[in-house]
Amino acid sequence: MHGWAISHRIRAVSKEVLQVNQGALYPALHRLEQNGWIKAEWGESENNRKAKYYSLTRAGRKYMEKEEANWERVAAIDWFLNSQLMRKRSHSLPLSPCTSSLPESASSTWLCGCSRTRPTPL
Fold first, then answer.
1. Confidence tier at 93 by pLDDT (50, 70, 90)
2. In-domain check, residue 99
């Protein structure tokens, strides 16, 4: 995949949350290439332009798998800590019914499971 396509893929996969500009992308691709995690080859793009195509090397795949495992551990810790925090909050915050003055967009499911219940302010 060439740089422009990588940038658009990141944007699409992140649902427009991550928008990597070329000033950040190409230096990052260069560092990945220097580390031996990707390789680059010149080719022709869909619109017949010269473009550098990047692909993951064996070392890059191994490094990515290691980082994915680290990410999964961090995500598991985050999930556990948040679940403990929510459990603690559900036992310590008194719940009261919502008032009708709240906009419909403010409704969501809260700790009690009711979609129209809010914690009482402290």
1. low
2. yes
Full-prediction pTM beyond 0.85?
no
Predicted confidence at residue 38, as pLDDT, reads 97
3-state SS, residue 42: strand
| Number of domains within the chain | 2
Q: Which residues have CB under 8 Å from 19's CB, separation 6+?
A: 10, 11
* Domain range for 35: 1-56
Euclidean distance between CA atoms 107 and 77, whole angstroms:
28
Q: How far is CA 79 from the centre of its chain?
A: 15
For 13-66, how does the pLDDT look when each residue is reduced to its tens digit (9 = 90+)? 999 999 999 899 999 999 999 999 999 999 998 889 999 999 999 999 999 999
Domain-embedded: residue 82: no
| Under 8 Å between Cβ of 31 and 37 | no
30 lies in some domain: yes
Q: CATH code at 29?
A: 1.10.10.10
Q: Return the structure tokens found at 64.
A: 């990515």
